[in-house]
Design a protein that fits this description.
Number of strands: 4
Strand content: 15-25%
Distance between the termini: 52 Å
Radius of gyration: 15 Å
Order of helices and strands: HEEHEHEH
Shape: globular
Low-confidence stretches: none
Helix content: 40-55%
Bound molecules: flavin mononucleotide
Number of domains: 1
């Protein structure tokens, strides 16, 4: 039922109400945006986020968790975030079930490498 309902919501581009959060995206230059893959696309809460928060001129790293078929999720995320600079992308296959520790290390290294790249870039400009 979860897959059926969730898959339908994702395909219909549903915009569920988000839980309140106390962060203002406009206060940040760099964002890491991640999602589970639902029906080969991003999960519905991101539809809400993308349609309610203006996300432009940011530096954004994108990531996803999936069960083995991520479809074209990164192309879709890049399209909806087209007025931003995409810093990198990475995916994890069911990280809570498979190689959790290795996936944690992979995620940390990826995030650290992106931050190092940004610092190096800022130093040279
Ligand atoms: C409604 C629903 C749809 C899903 N669709 C896909 C899919 O299209 N491709 C895929 O590889 N995994 C799919 N999955 C599996 C999840 O993406 C995967 O289990 C992911 O690791 C879940 O991350 P989470 O633990 O952060 O929710 C789906 C899961 C759900 C609940």
């Amino acid at each position: 039922m979860k897959y059926f309902w969730g898959g339908k919501e994702a395909m219909m581009k549903a915009k569920p109400k988000l839980l309140p959060f106390d962060k203002n995206i406009q206060d940040y230059d760099i964002l890491f945006i991640g999602t589970p893959v639902w029906a080969w696309t991003y999960a519905p809460p991101l539809n809400t986020l993308f349609s309610t928060c203006q996300i432009v001129n940011k530096k954004i790293a994108i990531f996803c968790c999936h069960g083995g078929n991520k479809g074209k999720i990164f192309d879709q995320m890049k399209k909806v975030l087209e007025n931003n600079q995409i810093l990198g992308e990475i995916d994890f296959q069911d990280p809570l079930k498979n190689n959790t520790d290795a996936n944690i290390q992979k995620a940390k290294k990826w995030a650290e490498d992106i931050m190092k790249m940004l610092k190096k870039y800022e130093k040279n400009t």
